[in-house]
Specification:
single chain; mainly beta
Length: about 120
C-alpha cells in the first residue's frame, strides 16, 4: 500500500503547478484524499481534501481561491492544482488517504516545490 506524490520542481512566482498523487496496492475509490505540505522549519499544514467520488472538496482558508483538488478514480489518481504561486508555497507536498474519520492512515513520499522569483 503506497501513495506517491509527484510533479514538484522549481517554479516561478505567479505561475501554477499541478501535483499528482498515485496509489499502488489499494483502490483510492474508498478513501478521502487530503493534501498537505511542510515548509522548512514548520509543521505539516493541511491544505484540503476531496471526498470518495470527488463530489465534495474542502480547502483551508490560507489557500482558498488558489487551490483545486480533483480526482480520477479510473486512473487511481488525485490532483492538486495551485495557482498564483508565492514564495511561501515552497514546501514538500504530501497526499494522504483517510477512510473519512479524519485520520489519515496512508502517506507517501512527498514532492518538493520550490517557488522562486
Amino acid at each position: 500500500v503506497q501513495l506517491q506524490a509527484s510533479g514538484g520542481g522549481l517554479v516561478q512566482t505567479g505561475s501554477s503547478l499541478r501535483l499528482s498523487c498515485a496509489a499502488s496496492g489499494f483502490n483510492l475509490d474508498y478513501y478521502v484524499i487530503g493534501w498537505f505540505r511542510q515548509a522548512p522549519g514548520k509543521e505539516r499544514q493541511f491544505l484540503g481534501s476531496i471526498s470518495w467520488l470527488g463530489t465534495n472538496t474542502y480547502y483551508t482558508d490560507s489557500v482558498k481561491g488558489r487551490i483545486t483538488i480533483s480526482r480520477d478514480n479510473a486512473k487511481n489518481m488525485v490532483y492538486l492544482q495551485l495557482n498564483n504561486l508565492k514564495s511561501e508555497d515552497t514546501a514538500i507536498y504530501y497526499c494522504g488517504a483517510s477512510q473519512g474519520n479524519g485520520r489519515y492512515d496512508y502517506w507517501g513520499e512527498g514532492t518538493l516545490v520550490t517557488v522562486s522569483s
